[in-house]
């Protein structure tokens, strides 16, 4: 892998353009690099709104499992681009970097930044947090409604695009077999998601047994990370009031989502909304009771004043 990554790096330093049926894409600065891919900014006909993701896999002689997952994700995500919940993909191709090496790549529209960039480079107020939260549950609910489980939700895979947050990097996503193209059956142990944000069951149970609760665990970690800049493992008491008393509204929710046993977590975005609504209702009822007692005490004070 390291040797292949270096060969790709040398090629990209030397070559200034990637040519395909869409035209000649001029390579720009590197946007990101992970264990399995490299992403470069690119321009086409003067437009700089593109990013090219190169998968660090040599498919010259054999189509690897990683390549099949990569291609599968590209094809299947095309079918839900109209929802606005995912980063738009526009082309899939292969690149011969030498006579022995062929690298697959995909081209997408370039996002302005990631959620990680937003949180690390800005002061996140409670109001901003709530906007991020509402945006996240909307896009997660969208992919779940289309029977897709992301399995790798983390701040680097959430992008700010067209004035909203969208999801990207579906390479290890679970697509419903009856509705999507299936090029590869992911096996246990193949490219596990980021440990910080992934649900515990993703490393212990079969791929087919993973459900929406895995993404909801990741959502809980992301929400906790936005506020605290850290993640949790194990059941710890959630104390967010030290950052802002208003965050107390989300303490019970995040605690629920971060349960190691998925049976103890909420099961869907709809359940999250019901959970928060019930909390708000309970809070309002307590405030009404408190106000009633205050009124009663005031009335008793008036009666006492005029009867003695």
How does this structure look, described?
The protein is α+β, with helices and mostly antiparallel strands and 308 residues long. It folds into 2 domains: 2-109, Phosphorylase Kinase, domain 1 (2-Layer Sandwich); 113-267, Transferase(Phosphotransferase), domain 1, CATH 1.10.510.10. 39% of the residues lie in helices and 21% in strands. It contains 7 helices and 11 strands. The protein has helices at 2-14, 65-78, 115-121, 126-145, 212-228, 248-257, 269-306; strands at 17-20, 23-33, 37-44, 47-55, 89-98, 101-109, 113-114, 148-149, 158-161, 164-167, 174-175. Strands 1-2-3-4-6-5 form a 6-stranded antiparallel sheet. Strands 7-9-10 form a 3-stranded antiparallel sheet. Helix 4 (126-145) runs antiparallel to helix 5 and helix 5 (212-228) packs across helix 6 (248-257). The longest helix is centred in the C-terminal third of the chain and has 38 residues, at 269-306. 31% of the residues are buried. The model has no long low-confidence stretch (mean pLDDT 89).
Counting DSSP H or I runs of 4 or more residues, the number of helices is: 7
Our Rg estimate from Cα atoms comes to 24 Å
The helix content, as a percent range, equals 25-40%
CATH class of the largest domain: Mainly Alpha
CATH architecture identity of the largest domain: Orthogonal Bundle
Series of secondary-structure elements, N-terminal to C-terminal: HEEEEHEEEHHEEEEHHH
N-to-C span: 90 Å
Q: Looking at the structure, what is the overall shape?
A: elongated
How many strands, which pairing sense, and closed or not: the largest β-sheet? 6 strands, antiparallel
Strand order of the largest sheet: 1-2-3-4-6-5
pLDDT averaged residue by residue: 89
Strand content: 15-25%
Indicate the low-confidence ranges by residue numbers: none
User: How many separate domains make up the residues?
Assistant: 2
CATH topology group of the largest domain: Transferase(Phosphotransferase), domain 1
